[in-house]
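INTERNAL TRANSFER SHEET
From: sequence group
To: structure group
Subject: Beta-galactosidase

Please process the attached sequence and return the structure record in the designated field. Keep the field labels unchanged so the import script can parse them.
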Amino acid sequence: MKKTAPAPLSAWRPLNLDAFLIGVPHYPEHVDESLWARDAQRMAEAGFNVVRMGEFAWHLWEPHEGHFAFDLFDRAIDGLAKQGIRTILCTPTATPPRWLSQAHPEILRVDAAGRTASHGSRQHGDTTSDVLRAHSRRITRAMATHYAGNPNVIGWQTDNELNTTTSLSFSPSCEVAFRKWCHLRYGTIEALNAAWGGHFWATHYDHFDQVVLPYPDNPGHVSPGHRQDYHRFLAAATAAFQRDQVEILRAANPDWFLFHNLGQLEDIDFRGTFSTDLDFLGFDIYPMLYDEMRRHGGHAHSQALHLDICRGFTGNFIVPEQASGLGSQPLFSTMTPEPGEMRRMALSSVARGADGLMFFRWRPAHFGAEIYWMGLIDHDDQPRRRYAEACHFARDMAALKDALPGSSVRIDVGIAGGDFDNQEAYRTYPMGLPSPLEDATLLHRALYRRNIATGFVHPEDDLSRLKALYVPHWLIWDPRWTDALRRFTEAGGQLIVSAMTATRTRDNHILTELAPGMGLGELLGVRVEEFGRIVAPGQDGLFAPPARPAGFGPGGAPLPACSAGRPHHLRLGETTLQAGHLYEKLILAPDVTPLAHWADRWLEGAPALTARPLGRGRAHYLGTYLTEALAEALIEAVLLPAGIAPLLPDLPEGVEASERQHPGGDRLLFLLNTTDMPREVTLPQPRRDLLSGARLGPVFALEPYGAVVLSSTPPGSG
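Return from structure group:
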């Protein structure tokens, strides 16, 4: 396994490894050692080349402070190596041992209610704690030193899903660290007061020792700038906690690759040092868990959305944990992948940027908080259909071993994403409106259903690779991004900017000019004269929508007229659509053309969607938020006329398409049946399936949860 220096962050950054990683997270400490040899043999027979282990075993690596024990994992690593399987180790800092939390209770998190975390779960350690950081450096250094010369250890994962259980802490050590961070950031208390608006509600501070953590609703709301800086601080503390480990591991063996496995993506700035300190990122993918928690619109789209979001942070990635079966903790359980669906989900990950994948997990646990989180081997030590599908996937990756390296995922329509400040700015003052990601999800889902190549990109990426870019009400804006968007549009791109974009400073202050600011208004030829809420059916204008059908109260009783909503509609061509959540009254420059108008109430006839020609492209502004119907209408009115088309026309419903491209022009088209019924696919010309070697077309059947990967070269040519 060879690595090169990682390229700069980009949605199109390929992985810097020369081989696909395939295997499982493995917990030899959970099973009798008599089973280890058979486990290794079965892994090798499956076609695996790697396991990941050790992330929750600090108590075994260091049973007493300063006393280290490596024998158990040494034997496990050696036994796997005899079958040709290498090991990725993890720093075990997600689970500080009991002796540590007992001797140093100051390392424990404290929640907003003042409760100190107890021992008996995970992520109870406070990553802002200097004491925890010192202990984490010691265990990392001991492990790195011991394994520095072991050729069977090829890489490391830092910690495990940082900030997934919680990212917040209100401990005394956190408060001290926050004050230090604020002092370093602002230099003077006057600068902090100006940033946080200290003259509002007399929240002024006289010196940094008075600064408090932003307790929620205690009794009211803190300044948006205060809350934003708290989350910036948490992100900085998380990055510093990881950097301690990275520096030790790099010094011990520079040939190791280093990554982290992200879970819930809380309080981590992916455009900062957290990512650039690593070789690449890993993202743990549980499509059914995400869909059932958040109702994205189906397991297949839920997975595609999460993968595209993650790829937008740093480019290609690995999946250190991919769902293999039922997932469960005491208070929930997911649906179970049907026969063939586990392999399909794994291939979807590859189609959308994974250059390594490990099925979670090898064996299910017989004890603990995840006893019904299934793996590839069942509780009775028998391999069944999940193991067979993992073997099938390993054969798939063997067939693609020469075609995948160096490729990245095609994006025709980019959605602005991956910006930590904008994610947090929304949270400081949500007002009951959708987040930028919630708004973007509507467009992503509409594009996904049409198999138009989409993904999330940052304005600092190479936008020349896009045909269109949608900006979903990014409140905070950087003037440099305006210049990038201008170049993109003048070169022929289709730019669409949503309502409320570029309305705040980095300190979460409202701009002193009409929005959009930071030069974006001049680019778009639009200014916002007035804005206000649109009360959706079933809402009362102040609070989040109730969990009942729109327009009806408990038991189906009609809501009072004042809370049933006053919807606004807009007219786009011959179509009238209900707008979403917010209206803006726009002032247009002379060269700006309205494409849609408000269709009722006092705004009737005013522009709602505009277009300004700019070079070879057009810059659009949408004076409202998306709805599902409006997302579809934007595709019809703006994207399709610009020549943006599906990756393959006329695909049947439920067949997902994604394309990976090489810089030289070679392409791999993944077609994945996400349904439990066969689907008939028509190709413009015959193609060879790289997975099976079969010649396909012009019409062929995709079996339930079946997949093909088509090369750009037709059979018999070139």
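Handover comment: The CA atoms of residues 397 and 468 lie 32 Å apart. The first strand starts at residue 21 and ends at 25.
Transfer complete.
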